[in-house]
Specification:
Elements lengths: L6 E9 L2 H12 L2 E7 L5 E7 L2 E7 L19 E7 L1
Parallel strand pairs: 1-4
Antiparallel strand pairs: 1-5, 2-3, 3-4
Length: 86
């Protein structure tokens, strides 16, 4: 690994109603969107940053997670970790 390489590990939160989750993190913690994709069905994948701490938020797909939503943002279906190397 060269010294010019930046490696990071960022959590990916799988939620129901990802667009609302993104807005929640922006309002509650001052998160900034670094990257976002909105699917035609309303699903979202977004990379956010809070004071330089990066994380991802993505809609969970019901076929992958059978838990029922019990809250405003829904149930955390899975936790994934993305390892990125620049």
């Amino acid at each position: 690994m060269s010294h010019d390489t930046k490696t990071s590990i960022a959590p990916m939160l799988s939620v129901r109603v990802g667009a609302k989750a993104v807005e929640f993190y922006k309002a509650a913690f001052g998160a900034v969107e670094l990257f976002r994709i909105d699917a035609e069905d309303g699903a979202v994948v977004a990379q956010l940053s809070v004071d330089g701490a990066e994380f991802w938020v993505a809609d969970v797909y019901v076929s992958l997670c059978q838990e029922k939503s019990t809250g405003v943002l829904g149930v955390l279906g899975r936790a994934r970790v993305a390892m990125l190397q620049d």
